[in-house]
Design brief:
Strand content: 15-25%
Number of helices: 6
Shape: globular
């Protein structure tokens, strides 16, 4: 019998993060440098939000109200109330909420502190591994 893996086993631990007062250009550079699409946003150690690659792209669309001559800060654009889970929360419930609310990421806490991040990309990797385990038990390889 197989068991649902714990969130802590499938999340990205100790994620990169950014301070709320940093310019958007710094968030974009950090995401590019580490090939990531979501950054938890902290304000003096407290989690206040999450900023995504999509948020940054939206702000650069010509004519968008936020595409101005003044440099915006991360706090100006981040999602203010991100979905937060505890490392002990059941993974199936987390996935249901992500699907229902169309969320790209979940910030994961342990004892109230940022411990990890679980993203839609992590969920896809988990699903792919499970499908391969079930339907390609010979290790038939990954799809291109």
């Amino acid at each position: 019998m197989h068991h649902i893996p714990p969130l802590v086993a499938v999340m990205t631990p100790f994620p990169y993060h950014i301070e709320a007062g940093q310019p958007l250009s710094e968030a974009a550079a950090l995401m590019r440098r580490h090939a990531i699409r979501h950054l938890p946003v902290l304000d003096q150690g407290d989690i206040i939000g999450v900023i995504s690659e999509r948020d940054l792209q939206r702000a650069t669309i010509p004519g968008h109200p936020l595409s101005s001559d003044t440099e915006l800060m991360v706090q100006d654009l981040c999602t203010q109330r991100p979905y937060v889970a505890d490392v002990s929360d059941p993974l199936d419930r987390i996935l249901e909420v992500m699907a229902d609310k169309r969320l790209g990421s979940v910030l994961v806490l342990k004892d109230g502190e940022l411990a990890g991040i679980f993203t839609a990309v992590d969920a896809c990797a988990l699903l792919a591994a499970e499908l391969q385990r079930q339907f390609r038990p010979d290790g038939g390889g990954r799809a291109a």
